[in-house]
Structure formats: structure tokens, C-alpha cells
Amino acid sequence: MKFSHGPGNAKDWIGLYREGASNRSYVDWAYVNGSQTATKGYTDGTVTFKGRLKPGTYHLRFFKNDSYTKISQDVPITVTSKKTSSQSPVKLKMLTMNTWHGGGKVNNGTDKIVRAVQRSGADVVGFQERPDPAKTVAKQLGWHFYQSPNGGSIISRYPIVEKFEIPGASAPTVRVRLSSGQEAIVTSAHLDYKEYGPYSAHFENKKTSEIIKIEEKRRGVEAAAILRTLKPYLSSNMPVFLLGDFNAPSHLDWVDSTKKSHNGYTIEWPVSKKIKQAGMTDSYRKIHPDPAKSPGNTWSPVYTSDHPWDSAYDYEPQDRIDFIYSKGRANATQSQVFVTGSPKPYGQHKDNEWPSDHAGVLSTFTINP
User: Looking at 82, 109, 133, which one is the last position of a domain?
Assistant: First the structure.
């Protein structure tokens, strides 16, 4: 629903009602920011209600500042059972890419980011790290973009019809309208890199309980903030994508069959567990369920085992820390670790075609009606 000329209060809200229902008996509702958590007031915008309605007549009602004081007349809508083109399945390809300081670590990095996006065939891309190349890359591609003031961005070949931030995390979020008319929520996350968990396991031999405690403090609180903000969408059947550089491994990877790769540890990493418990699916691990056979490491094509990121360590643990998660009507059909060219290790990296120190993740989804 589009609205305009509202008072601009953060708690102005829109309710969806069956015909004849009282103001307190709504089917669904949302504040003017499109969620059930008030963050910012808008006088004009769009609110999308999630899920399916049975055929019949419904009314949309616009209320002022958490009250039942109407701002405008009811807007009637009619729902029919006739199938429309917007209900056809849609294929959507997603890419997550840490840009390694906006491509600044390799020669002609921005142009290489553009080429990487083009070669991936992606429809929507999440970027992490500053300086952010989103505006420049989107302009060259002729795409839409949202570049967050808090870091991170999303570019899309499809229109971005809503943009919002997540308090407590670097995780810009958008609502994208696909060519079919279906809409999807996309969040590009970049979690804290400090006190990196695999270092604690490989070099410091900390107890598993202590490693998990650090993870909760560093990245768990950020993941919880993201999931808390996304909860209204996650509780619907709307397609929701959470992608990015999580700077934490997955509990699906540090298992008995991969102990040798992880210094003998098995760890229930809390960030990935929280996301799974919220009902989201790890697209790569869905397509490649065996972590011993398909580790899917994204860290790092540049900081290889023989070229550690921190010279204090003898080697660089290789791990999967970049992800694309989904929920709702999005079904992953393909997923791969993505790089362009053949990256050379740090110290020989300046002419790499791949402009990042992380590998990307490229996943294809079918979005069902």
C-alpha cells in the first residue's frame, strides 16, 4: 500500500481489516517504516503486508501515532482466487562479496568489481567493507542501490522500494520488487572481526565454552539484533535473504568429520545457530550438505595457509565465513563459492582479477507464489 501526506510520526500505522471489522480486529498491521518496530517517521511511502489472503473484501486503514484516530478514509481492496502473472515462480540469483576496502587493494579494483558482478549473473548483490563502491558500481551497471551510512550496501537490477537500518549492527536492509511484482527483503551484514574464533581454536587452544562466550559477545549480539528486526518478515511467508561477511564459521562445518581441519575442535558456533533457529536456511550447505567433501571455504583466496593475515601466526586457518541465508518462499537450487580469475596470495595480489580477500558466495533461488 502506498500512503502520502501523513503526519510523519514514527508510530503512525496502517492496518489491514476484513470488511466490517472493528479497528482492534486487524488481520495484519505495520508502522509506516514497513515493520512492527517503529524506527523513523514517514509522510510518504509504501507498506507491504505479507502472506496470503482468502478471497473477499478487505479495508486498509491509516491511523495516527499508535492510536485508533484515522488519518484518512478506508481504502477497500478485493482479493480474488484468480491466478495472476505475479504468482508465477521467479528465479533470483544472489551474490555476497566483501570488497576488500572497495577494491582498493588491487589495481583497477572498482572495474574488477563491476566485471565480477557481471560474470556472476547475479540479480542482487550485497557488499561489505569501506570505502563502499556501491554507487559507482551501480551507476556503471545501470542498477539500483542503497549505500548505508553505517557501512555496507546492496545493489539490485530490480527496484529498491524500501530501505532501512538495523540498530546494533552493520546490516543495511532493503525491500526489492521483482519483475513479477513479488517482493523480497535483503539484508547485507558485516559482523565484528575482532577476537576471531578460529584463531582462538587454532593458536590459543581456548576451551570451547570460552570461545562460544567470546562469539556471543562479539558477533552473537549483532546477529540477535538483525534477527529481532527481521522477525516480522521471518514470521511471514515473504522471501527473506540474509547475506554477508559474518566473520564466524558455521556450526554445520565444525563437526566430527572435519576435526582435522579445525585443530581437533567441534564447535556449535552461536551466530549460525541463531540464524538456523530463526528458520533460515544456509543455501550453500543445503546444496552441499557434506562439509568434509565440500568445505566451501571463503576465507581466504589471498590469505592462504602459507600467507597468514596476522604475521604472529604460522599459518592462516581456512574457513567458510561468508553466507547467503534464506527463508520464506525462496528455495535454493544452486550455490557455489565464487571468484574470478586465479587469485594469487597476498604479496602477489595487486594484479588479481578477483578484487577481494574473501571469496564470494553465489546462490540461485526459485521464489514460489
Answer: 82
Domain-ending residue, one of 38, 54, 82: 82
- Give the range of the structural domain holding residue 50, as residue numbers without chain letter: 1-82
Q: Please state the φ and ψ torsions of residue 259, each to the nearest 5 degrees.
A: -55, -40
Q: List the single range of 22-31, 115-124, 207-216, 280-289 with lowest mean pLDDT.
A: 22-31
Give SS3 for 334. Answer: strand
CB-based contacts of 287, cutoff 8 Å, min separation 6 = 332, 333, 334, 335, 363
CA distance 164 to 33: 8
Beta bridge partners of 243: 188, 324
- Read off the pTM: 0.79
- Number of domains observed in the structure of the chain: 2
Side-chain half-sphere CA neighbours of 102 within 13 A: 12
pLDDT tens digits for range 162-196: 899 999 999 999 999 998 888 999 999 999 999 99
Nearest-angstrom CA–CA distance, 256 and 287: 20
| Cα–Cα distance, 127 to 307 (Å, whole number) | 25
> Average per-residue pLDDT in the chain?
93
Q: Are residues 61 and 193 in the same domain?
A: no
Q: On the CB side of 247, how many CA atoms lie within 13 Å of its CA?
A: 21
